Amino acid sequence: MKAYLEDVFKTSGIPTYTFVKPAEYNSILVSLRTKGRCLVVEGPSGIGKTTCVIKVIEELGLNANITSLTARKKDDLEFIRILPEFDNLGTVIIDDFHLLELDLKSAIADYMKVLADEERTDDKLILIGINKAGDSLVQIAGDLNNRIDTIKFEQNPENKISELISLGEKVLNINFNTKEEIINLAKGSFHIAQLLSKETCTQAHVLETVSDKTKIDQSIEVIKEKVLSDFERIFYPKARKFAVGNRLRREGRAPYLHLLYWLSLSEEWSIQIDDIYLKYPDNKLSVSQVVDKGFLEGIIRDNEELKDVIHYDPNSRVLAVEDPKFMFYLRNILWSKFSKKVGYISLSFSNKYDYALSFAGENRDLASKINDLLLEREVSVFYDKNEQARILAENVEDYLAPIYKSEAFYVIVLMSKDYPKKIWTKFESDNFKERFGTNSIIPIWYVDNYPGYFDDTHKLGGLSFDQTKDLNNQAEEIVEVLTKKLFETRTEQKQ
């Protein structure tokens, strides 16, 4: 029987000829047969979660009593909101559950507890979402954990991707020369395997079942570049929008760009922020600045073009890719080229900190303001209060010494009358004094304490601060100069 290419390798909807049972199929079947328990199915997009659930429902003959809803549709959201008011609903699927607002998730969690406690035999909720969807529910209602089944979809093994391709080859009467390469590029995604197989056939002019067995002899690199070229038009604007955050800070540490890069390396298509802090401690300060102040959540919430491709759950602190095509794009771009095209000077940095602040306690008002303004510009700063938790129980001298000796690219010294009188400023200056002559010490002189002839800082270019004038305006001016200096330094390093 003749079949059309678009029906064989399907890039949307339920596969007609190439459905492959994922490893989780039987677990879902058993869960759906179990009366009185609701089900959460979680995992990366494009991995086959929704397709698998629908196929199990078909096998169990439950089609007639199914209501399918999605958190992406406004009308469905209204119905989801009133679900707890109904009895005898049958089986209800809520796809993209992770997109629901917290209050609606909470209401659904309570409803699932009611269904479990009342052991209703005819009502069941099936929630489908990205990684950690179940965790986000349990965080809302801790006692829900033992009342529901949570089935996590992992990356599909290579043999499952191979089975999908083989089914398509059989229907179209063809053999791919690039089957292994397609399997490798799919990275466990049924969706990407379908897409690459379809594009390979299109390039070979095989648009339907052929009468004679045909070998498809195409270059996988050509196919990949064709797909990436098509994706570039769609996904580059989205990737750039996320990578720059609210504003491009060329001299900054690029926290959004790094989050996107780390996503591209993730096998699960998601990253957990606290795990990232442990894995990349040098980036913790810049990333925490955009996460803890709500900027990460806000940039996705306020930009419609990002909502379709990326999601952040502030409760589980998980950042995840929504679209398998976007993930394919991220995994296959040249990141050094992408970061330069976006506008950043560098994706890697030679020093743990851009600046370290050295000051007397009496001058914390200026130090704090400089720290805040530099962090807003996505610059890495050592400021004692930023790292109180890390310093706790440590040998303070051992912790601080390397920061002032070498880990900070520049040391900013607030040269007030109080500076020479303090024990800790003496300790800090002892550790950075060897750096005089290396163009890495930046003094800020208080106007009532300009350096004398025997003060080493008088040889350095520095800035001034008048404590009788407006602190905020002066701090803004100081930070403007500091970030310009950093920009020039980074530019010179790249040349």
From TrEMBL:
Residues 357-454 form the TIR domain. It comes from the Bacteria. InterPro entries: P-loop_NTPase, TIR_dom, Toll_tir_struct_dom_sf. This is TIR domain-containing protein. The lineage of its organism: Bacteria, Pseudomonadati, Bacteroidota, Flavobacteriia, Flavobacteriales.
